[in-house]
Amino acid sequence: MTYTPHGKSLIAGAWVSTGQTFASRPARGASLSVYTGTADLVHDACEAAEAAFWSYGYSTREERARFLEAIADGIEDRAADITAIATAETGLPEARLNGERGRTTGQLRLFAAHIRKGDYLDRRHDPALPDRQPLPRPDLRMIERPIGPVAVFGASNFPLAFSVAGGDTASALAAGCPVVVKGHEAHPGTGEIVAEAIHEAIKACGLNAGVFSLVQGGSRAVGEALVRHPRIKAVGFTGSLGAGRALFDLCAARPEPIPFFGELGSINPMFLLPEAVSARGDEIGAGWAGSLTMGAGQFCTNPGIAIAVETQADAILGPAKEALVGTPAQIMLTDGMAEAYRQGAEQIVAQQGVEQVYTSRTDDRTARPNLFRVKATDFARNPVLSGEVFGPLGLLVTVVSVEEMLDLAKDLEGQLTATLHMDDGDMELAGRLLPILERKAGRVMANGYPTGVEVCDAMVHGGPWPASTNFGATSVGTLSIRRFLRPVCYQNIPPKILPEDLR
Ligand code: NAP
């Protein structure tokens, strides 16, 4: 490894230490002494971001596209170090992190191409009608403009793709918004080396250093100060429901309330329709087990519940259990997450009507899978059963009729995804479920598993509360840039002084 993390925060181009430190808790190797972030650092970063906006917010799309590509190149140049630091900090396997790095740089390049095209500006023009009766119409032009400095909070389970240079940062920078990231305590060294790549790209592109800052965590005061800072105009957050709700409430309570784009957890229901289960229950059961245990179940798209007709339950649970029994203990992202998973599993088991199909337990920073079943009547009465347990835990909910399946779908809370496993003979039932599921989820899919999220134009990674705090937004894909734009209408403004993109 050629890069040794120093644990400082990057504030507008300078690496800064503070008077206090915290020790990182890596899955492997030596702990890093990290300088705890402070409200003062947050203030300096936000003021610098505002100052930078006066140039960066008015830069050309080509300048920003080159900047995004320079960040991607800088991340690739540091590939080996990033993987080494991130595997040690998170315990995620090397191959997974190499893939996630590709996704992160691909995302940056996708946004570069997207802003070069310019469709996202949604330019509109209603030319003047001076002779219109009874009143003439003025010349009206509309364009999307960047909103100002954006705060970003990444999640522990995607230390690259949903962190320092992840989708929120890429989309905000693409829009023309400077970014202040609150570093995640679970991967401070990974955050630092990625911030270093952004820092170098800023210098290479000759941009104002305030365009990007990383304030390390270690204190709740950092995140709170960041969302409350008057220079911040929106927040991109990926993480748990509890943290998301706390920060969302702080944003709403500000003297100037700002949008909080929280991408939170989900239980991602899968509806296993009768014909599909009859034809290939084995395959679906084993596939569910594979999706549940991927990455130790630490995905926001983990399919935590499946719904099937009671008489077909064994056709799913048998093969699922068989696949789970052989799953070894997998390391979790943090000690706290491993403990929360154990507690979550114990809580599910204690609920009325829950039957254990397969249970296993570890007592260290690892997780083993758990599989349970419950009747729809007990599930419907108990909100504990529809809460996210972050880890490899599955719950099969059984229904006695198609009508009960439809009712269960109607009662679901907002989800990131909903899945139909269906064959041709299930078309009628699927057709009745789809209008319900489209009200519940950001992405509805057939015959697959929700754990892979494509980064592209048509992707929606969001959904109604509590999957996200804004049902109109996505945090993955090119549409995510909309979160950091604001439409402005220019009435009778001489073209010479209009924003360049409108001239
Ligand atoms: P987390 O514990 O909510 O942490 C996310 C960020 O919020 C961290 O920076 C954390 O800071 C901060 N935070 C936590 N509690 C806070 C509070 N009470 N007040 C202020 N800030 C607070 O989430 P995580 O463990 O990193 O990630 C796992 C969760 O993210 C899961 O629920 C998963 O489903 C969700 N997730 C969602 C998506 C999506 O796109 N929808 C993607 C990935 C993950 P500290 O470091 O100080 O704790």
Automatic annotation (TrEMBL):
Q: Which Pfam families match?
A: Aldedh (PF00171)
Sorted alphabetically, the keyword list is: Oxidoreductase
List each copy of the Aldehyde dehydrogenase domain by range.
32-462
Transmembrane ranges? Answer: none
The answer to whether keyword Oxidoreductase applies is: yes
Q: Please, which domain of life does this record's source organism belong to? A: Bacteria
- Molecular-function annotations in GO: oxidoreductase activity, acting on the aldehyde or oxo group of donors, NAD or NADP as acceptor
Enumerate the SUPFAM superfamilies for this protein: ALDH-like (SSF53720)
In Swiss-Prot or TrEMBL terms, this protein is called Aldehyde dehydrogenase (NADP(+))
Please give the organism.
Paenirhodobacter populi
